[in-house]
């Protein structure tokens, strides 16, 4: 099995050393580089094309939000590269963490999370599922829904079936759970999800949840 390639962007050298040792200890993970600020993080990602980026929020030169957006912009030019970004913060929830999710991060964790959970999070986001610090999950979605706006006209382009699939995915159901509920095959659900993402211009299922909360759909 090809190992999951991981990079780390954080301005604290001691923290980077600890994460490097932790990730390198796992046979299914490969630590491929680290950077001390967001700008260096973009260059590192461009060079190494990691599968998962662990990203600090607050850094000099360029913060983690801007770096997240920059890495994902780079990835758009390479269809064969689909990096997942997990932002790391010392706060349960703040505006910066919510902005990082909006920018395309696949979730966020607290820096004092248990090592086993961090490792599990890397594997989880690589598999396409979001990861959010348990203590902040409810607050995050409520925060995203604070300034709700009507759905854009593009939402009306979804078929009735696609809208059903969208709402179930926005509630956090997996493809298997949606397939069971709607009496469909998982392959069919996956196809519908792909079409929903394409029509709404969303990157992944995390963005589906963000879209739904920001537009009052859940």
From TrEMBL:
Which keywords accompany this UniProt record?
DNA-binding, Phosphoprotein, Transcription, Transcription regulation
- Spell out which residues are annotated as carrying 4-aspartylphosphate: 56
Q: Which InterPro entries would you find in this protein's record? A: CheY-like_superfamily, NreC/VraR/RcsB-like_REC, Sig_transdc_resp-reg_C-effctor, Sig_transdc_resp-reg_receiver, Tscrpt_reg_LuxR_C, WalR-like
Organism in which the protein naturally occurs: Antiquaquibacter oligotrophicus
This one is known as DNA-binding NarL/FixJ family response regulator
- A Gene Ontology molecular-function term? DNA binding
Domain HTH luxR-type: from-to ranges: 151-216
Q: Where is the Response regulatory domain?
A: 5-126
Against PROSITE patterns, the record matches this protein to:
HTH_LUXR_2, RESPONSE_REGULATORY
Say yes or no: keyword Ion transport present.
no
The organism's lineage is:
Bacteria, Bacillati, Actinomycetota, Actinomycetes, Micrococcales
Entry keyword Transcription: yes
Concerning Pfam families, the annotation shows: GerE, Response_reg
